[in-house]
Amino acid sequence: MFGGIPGGMPQNPEQMQQSMQQMMNNPVVQSLLDNPEFLRTMMQSNPAIRQVCLSQCTWRVPGEGATPCA
User: Fold this and answer.
1) What SS3 state is found at 52?
2) For position 25, what pLDDT does the model report?
3) According to the 3-state scheme, what is the secondary structure of 10-45?
4) Using an 8 Å Cβ cutoff, are 23 and 10 in contact?
5) Under a CB-based contact definition with an 8 Å cutoff, are residues 43 and 53 in contact?
6) How far is 70 from 66, CA to CA, in rounded Å?
7) Distances (CA, A) of 45 to 42, 66, 70
């Protein structure tokens, strides 16, 4: 099983889009995406994402304005 998708990763773009839409509509995923501290922790713990953030991104945290990812 890949990412909770029965049968593994979808093979065609339409299936992949549908799977992504189902995942994004999941209340658990929504609650995680609505949590800025969780997102910050995930970004900081993934070396590839951390490098992108350190080199070029800022993101908005509600009530805090633009904040560097690092």
Assistant:
1) helix
2) 93
3) CCCHHHHHHHHHHHHCCHHHHHHHCCHHHHHHHHHH
4) no
5) yes
6) 12
7) 5, 20, 10
Rounded-to-integer distance, Cα 10 and Cα 12, Å: 6
**pLDDT, tens digit, for every residue of 19-70?**
889 999 999 999 988 998 988 888 888 888 877 777 776 655 455 555 555 4
Tell me which H or E stretch contains 62: none
Strand-pairing partners, residue 5, are: 2
pTM of model > 0.70: no
61 three-class SS: strand
